[in-house]
Amino acid sequence: MVTVALDCMGSDLGPEVTVGGAAKASQWRGAPQMVLVGDEAIVRRLLSVHEHDRDKIRIAHAPRTVGQMDKPREALDAMPDCSILRAAQLVKAGEADVLVSAGNTGAVTLACARTFERLPNVGRCALGAVYPTERRRGEKDDPFSLILDAGLTLEVDGNDLVAFAVMGSAYASRISRNPNPRVALLSNGSEAGKGTRAVVDANRRLQTVEHLNFIGNMEGMDIPKGTADVVVTDGFTGKIVLKMLEGVAETVMRLGRYAGDKSLRYKAGLGLLMPAVKKLRKATDWEQYGGAPILGFDQLCIKAHGRSTERAIGNAIKVATRAARTELLRSIRTGLESLG
Amino acid sequence: MVTVALDCMGSDLGPEVTVGGAAKASQWRGAPQMVLVGDEAIVRRLLSVHEHDRDKIRIAHAPRTVGQMDKPREALDAMPDCSILRAAQLVKAGEADVLVSAGNTGAVTLACARTFERLPNVGRCALGAVYPTERRRGEKDDPFSLILDAGLTLEVDGNDLVAFAVMGSAYASRISRNPNPRVALLSNGSEAGKGTRAVVDANRRLQTVEHLNFIGNMEGMDIPKGTADVVVTDGFTGKIVLKMLEGVAETVMRLGRYAGDKSLRYKAGLGLLMPAVKKLRKATDWEQYGGAPILGFDQLCIKAHGRSTERAIGNAIKVATRAARTELLRSIRTGLESLG
Q1: Phi then psi for A117, rounded to 5 degrees?
Q2: Is the pLDDT of residue A138 over 80?
Q3: How far apart are CA A167 and CA A297, in angstroms?
Q4: CA A112 to CA A105: how far, in whole Å?
Q5: For helices B83-92 and B105-115, what crossing angle results, to 10°?
Q6: Helices A15-25, A310-325: crossing angle, 10 deg rounding
Q7: Which of B236, B265, B279 sits opposite A260 (nearest CB)?
Q8: Inter-chain touch B279–A261, beta carbons under 8 Å
Q9: Is-contact B269 A273, C-beta < 8 A?
């Protein structure tokens, strides 16, 4: 049985939403065990007003909370009894299998770094994020590619990119049920010699990694096409690219201004298109999708967006549960160890 | 009177197109003087079939050509009498004011590096590129922002980014006639402390540069919005971003697949939108727009796209002429010198 440690505090919408999401999740068929970490009085009161399965939920008291605007290092130094550290310690101690938090990203990452160990051959960690593409893939015919790093490690070397590729491939095959995901390095050109020193070095080394479906470099236009299932890049570029994608729906809405066409014909066309555009906008809001894995530690953490709704918290719990059930960490470790 | 040295050889479409473009340009009101550099017999024969103003055109013989697929260093070593080197030497010697080429980008840049000097406070050079945004700006109400570097210098330090900002601002104010262009650093977050070490360093220093309208960091979603008139970034990120923008029109066309909507309603809407989409596609084909400046040398070079049509060659000649007439280089030099 999988146990999820859920940091209930520190999200933008407050513990109402995290506890509400967990209460709903407890009623699923095949729900995991959950430890709700936070101020016990608050969590208990919130549970009392949400229907839930009492056998699936227990509470771990943590009196203090890191706020979204707090400076991570100072906050964790000042509050060793805060919910995110307590939740990470439960995972470290084996009382839970996986950590879920919608708190301050910097504080969540730092809590992991202070509590967990890094996996072999990992210099720096990566945040994975999914985004929708034109292509369908995997068992569930889903449109998502994984991009990593999505903003955690801004500057990388070849080692980092190789580790990101191996970890991303394992994640995509377990979570997206895509048994042989295509992995590519994002670069300024598709040829193997194109790119920063880190990219050129990683390209050379990834060609020899076994059990990895490395398809080489990819370019910017391949991002929305979905040429790769796993897009490997540094966190600086990854974050910029994801923010551009978020803007795609808005660009379509304003296509008229963009193309200088303000005709009635254009407006009529846009009206007919609107339902698809709204769908697109929802699909490109990548941060709403279930949560992003922090990869590189010997324990797993799923970072849900700070503004997560109950549904988003539920999705993060679902992803975390699947990751634990499919032994994602073991698969990542095996891949990393084989790098030698 | 401005003189443009035009490398006639080495473009994808051959000297027919470059000579044809120059012949047309010679008939403009206010046309510059032009030196057509290339194989004299070929250029002369092509001129004989294109109507042109003989007073505006002369030929400088260069017997050999660097191909688009040639390795720049080896090609320039083997062919000191090639057209791109000869054209650069004419500019160096003061026989022309500005260089225009649609040849192999690496060879053009290397020919500049071997022939020209770098300006003060410039460590590495930048290729500027314009792309269309939602915003209108400048005297001519144009929709373009300038992004640099567009792929020449993949890895940068803070000095490079500061120099790119100063050069890009001067270029936008002269060429786009936008007297006080807003300059921003592309980063993973809008706050001054966000970014790679190079971005954080450049942000700190750009705040104190006089006569520069520095608006701070910008994020990926600001790119299509046109929040900044000059987008400053490294060549790796810049190239990826530009390639993504090129894909925007295609993404719109395939929005149906993207959003999973294949309804008739959707198809009807797309049909009505098509003229605007085609306009957008044309506008986002940034490489067709007149040519991209190579900035950082003590002489100016406008790099036209390898697949330039006669019209694109004409646009590049127009931009080069305006750059020389407005004394762009002097303005860039003054800005760089004031960095101290």
Answers
A1: -105, 155
A2: no
A3: 11
A4: 11
A5: 40
A6: 50
A7: B279
A8: yes
A9: yes
CA distance B31 to B49: 20
- CA distance linking residue A326 with residue B137, whole number of Å: 54
Select from A223, A241, A272 the Cβ nearest to the Cβ of B265. A272
Radius of gyration of chain B (CA): 21
Identity of residue A225 = K
Q: Which stretch of A149-153, B217-221, B288-292 has the lowest confidence by average pLDDT? A: B288-292
User: Which structure tokens are listed for A153?
Assistant: 């490690």
**What ipTM was reported for this prediction?**
0.88
Q: B261 to chain A: nearest residue by CA?
A: A276
**B74: Cβ–Cβ under 8 A, 6 or more apart, which residues?**
none
CB pair distance less than 8 Å for A220 and B242:
yes
Q: Are the beta carbons of B269 and A266 closer than 8 angstroms?
A: no
B279 to A257: CB separation less than 8 angstroms, yes or no = no
3-state DSSP assignment of residue B270: helix
pTM, 2 dp: 0.90
| Residue recorded with tokens 């390095």 | A185
Q: How confident is the model at residue A281 (pLDDT cuts 50, 70, 90)?
A: low
Q: Could you tell me if B197 lies within 8 Å of chain A, comparing CB atoms?
A: yes
**Crossing angle for the helix pair B158-175 and B310-325, to the nearest 10 degrees:** 100
Residue A188 has pLDDT above 60, yes or no: yes
